[in-house]
Amino acid sequence: MTxxxxxxxxxxxxxxxxLAKETPVTLWARDSAQxxxxxxxxxxxxxxxxxxxxxxxxxxxxxxxATEAEVLLLAVPMQxxxxxxxxxxxxxxxxxxxxxxxxxELETGFGPIxxxxxxxxxxxxxxxxxxxxxxxxxxGLPTALTLACSDAKLGHQLQQQLTTANLRxxxxxxxxxxxxxxxxxxxxxxxxxxxxGAGLGESARAALMTRGYxxxxxxxxxxxxxxxxxxxxxxxxxLTLTCSSPLSRNYQLGLSIGRGDGFDPNITVEGAAxxxxxxxxxxxxxxxxxxxxxxxxxxxGDLTIATAGAQLLARPLKEE
Length: 320
Ligand SMILES: NC(=O)C1=CN([C@@H]2O[C@H](COP(=O)(O)OP(=O)(O)OC[C@H]3O[C@@H](n4cnc5c(N)ncnc54)[C@H](O)[C@@H]3O)[C@@H](O)[C@H]2O)C=CC1
Ligand SMILES: O=C(CO)COP(=O)(O)O
Hints:
Elements: E1 3-6, H1 10-20, E2 25-28, H2 32-41, E3 57-60, H3 63-66, E4 71-74, H4 78-87, H5 89-92, E5 96-99, H6 112-119, E6 124-129, H7 134-138, E7 143-148, H8 152-162, E8 167-172, H9 175-197, H10 202-222, H11 227-230, H12 233-244, H13 249-259, H14 270-285, H15 290-300, H16 305-313
Parallel strand pairs: 1-2, 1-4, 2-3, 4-5, 5-6, 7-8
Antiparallel strand pairs: 6-7
This protein binds 1,4-dihydronicotinamide adenine dinucleotide (NAI) and 1,3-dihydroxyacetonephosphate.
1,4-dihydronicotinamide adenine dinucleotide (NAI) binds next to helix 1 and helix 4.
Organism: Pseudophaeobacter arcticus
Protein name: Glycerol-3-phosphate dehydrogenase [NAD(P)+]
Catalytic activity: sn-glycerol 3-phosphate + NAD(+) = dihydroxyacetone phosphate + NADH + H(+); sn-glycerol 3-phosphate + NADP(+) = dihydroxyacetone phosphate + NADPH + H(+)
């Protein structure tokens, strides 16, 4: 079996490093200078500077070389997924495509599986998601993820093919639940970072995580997802990691909002566009998602932390 990873950011490189310890892996980046640097230094100096690339990992900027593999992992940000697929439609036709991004497309409200199916109707889409920092995977630390694929046979096969010594995959056919868990937890992580950054305390964070989980479930169940998927690695698991670790970029963005600091717009923070997409989607579906709306208000500068907190606390009292 041959594997390629498309996108040599932090996550794509980490997955390629882990998989290349067991099988040959091609890692594609669009930037030929970055590829030359990885070939020379045997390291992704920009994203994972302390981790050497295994001998069986081949960096390339030649897209057709990368698409010779049987299984392709798509590790580009969610908001870039459609354009990458469209740009390489011919090479990707009919391929097994495992999306590794976590988010909802701003313009359409769709997750990665639908985007793949729209651009490449003959492709066989799957999703790899769950609690994992690129740095942990790259360093060989133990990690458990969810492999979601509506085709149960293909999902079983991918689970076997993509499990490594440190990366244990569970499988599900509930792609909608896995997509939404991984996407929506980023919104709540921004909120948690904001609360901690503003010094509002650990109790407030626990409240946000719990009510955020209720909000995630509300949206996911309305979209036909299974509750047990939300309770699994892709939902509850990733919510826990992302809302509690300063290594999370979504949490870091929240921290900077809470502290009133600036934030580098070039850092990949999936939760920002996803919050906006989710708030719009919730409105059309008639769903109450007050935390998501609050995060959008904070991101747009329409709310301060003080007014956001006051608004949430003043909401009508209800059953849990
Ligand atoms: N970094 C992490 O710990 C984890 C990241 N993820 C997910 O993986 C996805 C990617 O995140 P990271 O790798 O961390 O981001 P990153 O910012 O480190 O890398 C993104 C990569 O995508 C490439 N890219 C962007 N637009 C492109 C285009 N149009 N064509 C080709 N390449 C393009 C960039 O050059 C960059 O190498 C996100 O959805 C994120 O949520 C998931 C789990 C863990
Ligand atoms: O998805 C992640 C952890 O599972 C990575 O989180 P960030 O994108 O917030 O860094």
